[in-house]
Fold this sequence. Notes:
25% of the residues are buried. About 6% of the residues have low confidence. Helix content is 52%, strand content 14%. Strand 5 and strand 6 form a beta hairpin. It contains 18 helices and twelve strands. It is α+β, with helices and mostly antiparallel strands.
Amino acid sequence: MIKTLLRFLVPLLLIAAPLAAQDKSGCDSSRWYCVSGLNTGLPQPSTLIYRETPRATIESLIAAAREDAWTEAAHLLDLSGIPEVQQLAAGTGLARQLETVISRKTVIDWDIILDRPDALDARASSDRAMAGEPRKSLLLWTLELDNRPVAIRLNRIKPEDGAAVWVFSRQTVGNIPALFARFGPGRFEKMLPDALKENAAFGFKWWEVLGLPLLLALSAGAGWLVWKGMGWAARKASHQVVTDTLLSIRGPASIGSATLVALAIGSYAFVFSGQISTVLPPLAWLGLAGSGLWLAINSVEAVLDRLTSSDETDLTQRQEDHKRTMATRLAAARRAFVVAAVLIGGGIFLSQSNIFQNLGFTILGTAGALTLILGFAARRVLGNIIASLQIALNQSAKIGDRIVYNDYLCHVERINFTYVQLRDWDGTRLIVPVEEFISTPFENWTMKEPKMLRIIKLKCAHNADVDALREAFDDIVGKLDKEELGDPDDAKVRVAGQDVFGKDVWFALPCADPNTSWDVACKAREMIIAAGNRIAEERNIDIFPEVRPAEAA
């Protein structure tokens, strides 16, 4: 019986011991970090410093910076990692450095810096992990330092002899010297006159007001020099391949040079304030990524243009079926590569979520918001791109195919991202959106088997001698170019219909090449009509009906 009681009592005692210790100490570790003392090496803070809420701490840092009260600002840091005798001297310098880093590399988003002692976000959606829960640590910003993210964080700390306060965390304080060395005033900025380092307006300094237009002008000048230089080199090149290559990479090289200059000056030579530095580097990186993708796409385009070059080959010829298929597949591969490159490049850029966080637009970094924005803005473009890939996959129309589209007799000349380029028989170009092209029925004379029967339809009189027309047609088939005709045994003459005006006689003309079949059919029609008139004159019979225009109408 005693053993049984002990089995129940021992676990209860083990559970109750921590609870008793917590009650005895009077510190609730779920609401704050419990410490024996906080910044004991500093004098008591003045009324300038308020640390009861996260927002009060940030406001106190801004107020201390305006008053140049850095000794007071040291109370906003957790200096527990610094010996007590050094806290006053070290805290003053660290507070100054932290304020410099925050003003240069961040934009304060007051919506995420809560004005509640428990930092509970009452507006958070229920699907967030900390919705409706008090917090004792709050992430404000994330900065890149030595290829790793460094957090600037506030912690709620309660000393044994005082109230709980919000201060910058011990880890953040430990990273301040490295952050200041990376994002503080650069060597060139230190050389500027003191007058240019004074505040101008909107949080900018005078050197920023004057330097930003100069930076943009230098970037544009660098891009213009690269553009002109590569254009000059292209004109002086002795080979057409070199000329084409230089011209194809001139655009991305110019954009890349301009953004590289802006990135180098804006990130290393001069460190601008937060309003500029949180926008300029992301845009510069976006320009570099875009120019790199553009360069890769142009390179692939140049290679594929060489592979699909048809300067000496007419892809419309019936014997070039393999090359037509290859050209269509390579064109599809080109489009697929461009789409993949854009998606991968955009994904890499957008994955840098700290960019949007420091800008205060975290929602723009979410995949759902971007999907909605891009899907709505580019739904037609994306639909046409997918449709163009669909054409390449199902081979319903290949480059060089002879088709009849909306009564236009034309060739498929190009299948682009958003439109199909058709060349009419008279040399004019017909531009059709891809979605409309695949949703409209059309005749493909080249698909599967190039041989075809061209039907020549003539209206003949009721008493017309069809046998005489059949003999004349056989004779005409024998006179036409054998290279343009199919099997002569497929030539047929049939009476396909009849009405009050006469009977419909169809002449089936076998053609070997859909590209020349229309011309051959026109020539044969002319010869059939001439033969019919000759038969009518020789035999004194009617071949074609005599109908007045009013009756025909």
